[in-house]
Design brief:
Radius of gyration: 21 Å
Distance between the termini: 20 Å
Strand content: 25-35%
Structural class: alpha+beta
Largest sheet: 6 strands, antiparallel
Helix content: 10-25%
Number of helices: 9
Order of helices and strands: EEHEEEEEHEHEEEEEHHHEEHEEHEEEHE
Number of domains: 3
Shape: globular
CATH topology of the largest domain: Uridine Diphospho-n-acetylenolpyruvylglucosamine Reductase, domain 3
Number of strands: 21
């Protein structure tokens, strides 16, 4: 196992921002992972697990510990006898390659999650979701190293405590587990999920004619829609959606309609998801709509940081941006959205090297 010193982290992130790591280790196996953890503890410094770097903002000063880059890739597809199939992927595998494998095998369940940048290890942590699907709907098992008990464990779906962009890995047990592999259960020959409005519009003519698009066609459609919004990693230097869609009491919608000068049914709103009981009378709002309501527009720039020219949810590095510039734009958006709507948005990307960061030991 090679230990590198003073390695710039910006190239390891899709945002392209951040200073150096004191040490960086490429962990291509679980044995490498354990060795890297022991190395960090021997040095008496914290460590951070790095996957695809798609949901990460690194400070300009970098990280004074050990960054462990999970590099174990590969996925195994197995057909079961009851109409289902499983895909078991190592944490370092590219997520979109897993979605591709699923649709190639005609397996439904994650086709709407196409084009999301990052690696497999991050999928259960954030419970990634898009276009009417969440990855938690297909996860059956997460293999992880338990830093508290110093042992590898297998956690089932219930043990992962999934919620909207939430799991035990980024909440109640944050810093305890290192994900090394994820098992997904998919339906062979299942119908694609088409409940999201963008997909309904994309396939409107075919659906009206009684035709159902294939899983592969839905995969291509999602990537096309994401590309049009600038939400593919290859479109720009960004961390994807920088803000979560807020879940709020349904009564707030009428107040927002007054602020926006529109009808209540013109305020973009969605069901809060399976993690929220219907009796709670909550709705999920569009963070992008709230940002635009606060006066920001596509292409808005603040120094070398800006908003995507295709979608206001994505903060982009316009070229040579620093983490401080990214945060200045983030704070401006947070403050103006709250001032206009009394709603506080929550950012999605994880931060590293900032005073508020809680690294592992």
């Amino acid at each position: 196992m090679t230990v590198l010193e003073n390695v710039p982290l910006a190239p390891y992130t899709t945002l392209g921002v951040g200073g150096p790591a004191r040490w960086l280790v490429e962990a291509a196996s679980e044995d490498d992972l354990l060795t890297a953890v022991r190395f960090a503890r021997a040095q008496g410094v914290p460590f951070f697990i790095l996957g695809g770097g798609s949901n990460l903002l690194v400070s300009d000063s970098g990280f004074p510990g050990v960054v462990i880059h999970v590099a174990a890739t590969g996925s195994v597809w197995t057909e079961e006898s009851n109409g289902f199939a499983s895909i078991v992927s190592n944490a370092g595998a590219n997520w979109d390659s897993v979605v591709q494998l699923a649709v190639e095998k005609n397996c439904a369940g994650i086709e709407c999650l196409a084009g999301i940048p990052g690696s497999v290890g991050g999928t259960p942590v954030q419970n990634i979701g898009a276009y009417g699907q969440e990855v938690a709907e297909t996860i059956v098992r997460v293999r992880a190293y338990d830093l508290t008990d110093s042992a590898f464990v297998e956690l089932d779906r219930e043990a992962c405590g999934f919620g909207y962009r939430r799991s035990i890995f980024n909440s109640t047990a944050q810093g305890r587990y290192i994900v090394t592999a994820v098992s997904y259960r998919l339906r062979v020959g299942g119908a694609p999920t088409l409940k999201y409005a963008d997909l309904g519009r994309y396939f409107a003519e075919r659906l009206a004619a009684g035709e159902t698009p294939t899983l592969s066609e839905v995969y291509d459609a999602v990537r096309a829609i994401r590309a049009a919004k600038g939400m593919l990693a290859e479109n720009s230097r960004s961390a994807g959606s920088f803000f979560k869609n807020p879940i709020v009491p349904a009564a707030i919608v009428s107040r927002l309609a007054v602020i926006a000068g529109c009808r209540v049914d013109e305020v973009p709103q969605f069901p809060p998801g399976s993690w929220v009981a219907p009796a709670d009378e909550l709705v999920k709002l569009s963070a992008a709509w709230l940002i635009e309501l606060a006066g920001f527009h596509k292409g808005f720039a603040l120094g070398r940081a800006g908003l995507s020219t295709r979608h206001v949810l994505a903060i982009v590095n316009r070229g040579g941006a620093t983490a401080s510039e990214i945060l200045a734009l983030r704070d401006a958006i947070l403050d103006r959205v709250h001032a206009r709507t009394a709603i506080r948005l929550e950012q999605e990307p994880v931060t590293l090297g900032f005073p508020s960061t809680n690294p592992r030991h």
